[in-house]
Every structure is written in structure tokens, then in C-alpha cells.
Amino acid sequence: MVRAAVLPAVGAPLEIAEIDLPEPGPGRVRVRLAAAGVCHSDLSLSDGTMRVPVPAVLGHEGAGTVVSVGEGVTHVAPGDGVVLNWAPSCGACHACSLGEVWLCANALAGTADVYARRASDGSDLHPGLNVAAFAEETVVAASCVLPAPDGVPLVDAALLGCAVLTGYGAVHHCAQVRPGETVAVFGAGGVGLAALQAARIAGASQIVAVDVSPEKESLARDAGATDYVVASDATAREIRGLTGKQGVDVAVECVGRAVTIRTAWDSTRRGGRTTVVGIGGKDQQVTFNALEIFHWGRTLAGCVYGNCDPARDLPVLAEHVRAGRLDLGSLVTDRIALDGIPAAFDNMIAGKGGRALVVF
Questions:
Q1: pLDDT value for 231
Q2: Cβ distance 85 to 31 under 8 Å?
Q3: Which of 192, 179, 185, 238 is nearest to 208 (CA)?
Q4: 296 in helix, strand or coil?
Q5: What is the average per-residue pLDDT within 237-260?
Q6: Residue 51 has pLDDT above 90, yes or no
Q7: Which one, of 223, 235, 219, lies nearest residue 186 by Cα?
Q8: pLDDT at 275
Q9: Burial letters for 1-12: b for 16+ Cβ neighbours within 10 Å, e otherwise?
């Protein structure tokens, strides 16, 4: 038996409970977690913004050590460090055939599986976003584990599984920020802080961080922000004022609210690019008129998982870490135990801090 944070029902509080994990069958891997990041997507799953079969063990950003493997698993072995991949591509659907593995139609098929049972009553448990990282150990499909990169501590490597891939990919793959361009990043949580670092790595000449919290300014500047704006009704005007009245070349929205998406769009120059990373609810309606779309010539693009291929991009990120260009530890503002996850959710709702990291 292992301890896990169980979501008994949508909208219900998480419960720390003991669960029974099966031994890994064919094509499965058992992993002892070193750390798991608390992502806004976990909050969105718990409150029903995103759907998940329940009861479930959430958590999708993690890293750990292989305990055992099932038949047919050859790319990892017991004792290996691994990073969890919550959205493994099937390699066979239309998106995968186009090389767009981040849009794989079958990536989340495993969330409907029963992967464990609650020890107290034997009730079925589902694996959140495939990997159920809010637990001391988990059992996942072999496609959900990637060898951990050399030279990156496992606790830090957990952040590579979502926040850093997403923030880095939004800047490098989706927005394709070029040296000398100006960038605004909306939201200075875990993904936003990663995007700020990515913009610095890309050679952006000016990086404006935007957040509702004045207290996050030092975090944002440490990540690479050259300017900091506290979000208000005047945010777009402030950003234009900081950029010679033009607006930024690229805006990256990491919040998922209609008003923030609209403000990010309004903050870009004529012909600029707005990339939306944040996940909002169906009630968040963004409106544009036909004339402004023509006049401004801006591009608005959604971004899933940073448009990343984890197998391709993890080694790239690891090299940035080893070279000192990417600081994973600076994304973390709280190191907590399993029972600290509800408080981490509350902090996200209140707009406090960067990434909370469950350390086992």
C-alpha cells in the first residue's frame, strides 16, 4: 500500500488515503515518486473545469525511480530515474501522422482506466491525467515514462514534465520568439515563470511580466523579466507605453481567462503574435470584431503542452539546465507534503507564489 491524494468526486476536497497498486503487467512500469508539481490543470480537474473520471488520483507533473517493469518494457529498468509524460502520443492517429504529437487524439485514453484501488473499501481509482503523480508510487503505461536526463536532480526534473515543457514550448515552438523581439508573459505562476526564462533564452530584447500580484515581481525579474506590470484595466496601455507605443511582438497568455486573453491580444503590436497557453472554462468567451482582425493583422494561436514532443525536447531542456541557462529551482516557491496540496490549490486561486512541489 502507498499513500495518495484522492479526489473522491468533482468539487470535493482531496483525501489522503492508502491505495493498493497492482504489480505492473505487460507494457507497464511502477515508479516511486521523487517529486510532483502542483499544476493549475490539477485544480481545473478537481473543480470540473476539465473532465476526469472519478474517484481519481491527480498529479501529472512528476519524476521518480523505476521500481519494477512488466513484460515487454525495455527502454527503462528498475533503478532508472524517469520523468513522467502525462500525454503520450499513440503514433497512429491523424495528428501523430502529421508530426503534431501534442495533439494526439488518444493521448488521454488511459485516464478512463482503473489503475489502483482504495485500500479501505476496494473501490476503483482512475489515474487522473494518466500518471497519478500525487502518490508515493504509481503504475503507468511504459509510454508515460521517459529516461530522466543526466545531470538534473530527480526532484527538479519533475518540473520538466509539464511547467517547463509548456512554458518553453509556448515561446520556442508556438510563438517562435526570435532574438531581439519583445515579449509579454501574462501570469507568473509555474508555466509563466518558465516562459519568462524561455524568452530570455530565446534572446528577447525586452520581457514584460504581467500578474495580479505585486509580490511576484522579484520572481519574475529573476526569471528574466525586464519590466513588471501589475494587472489592471490599463495593462495593454502600459505595455504599449513600455514599447514605444507599438506593443510587444509576442504575448504569451498563461492564465486562461477571457479578459487576460483579450488584454494579451491588445498588448501586441500590429502584426504581432498572441499565444494562449492558459486553460479556461467554457464560460470564458473572448470577442473580437471583424474590422479589428483585419486592421491589426495579429495572429492568435492556441498552444497545447507547449507544442512539444517530450522525447525530443527533454534533452534540449536538460542541456539548458546543465549550462545554467535554465534554473528549475527558481520556479518553486513552496516545497510541501501530500497533505499540502489543498493549500497549494488555494494559493493558485489567490494568485500567490510560483510552483508548489510535493517532495516525497
A1: 97
A2: no
A3: 185
A4: helix
A5: 97
A6: no
A7: 235
A8: 98
A9: ebbbbbbbebee
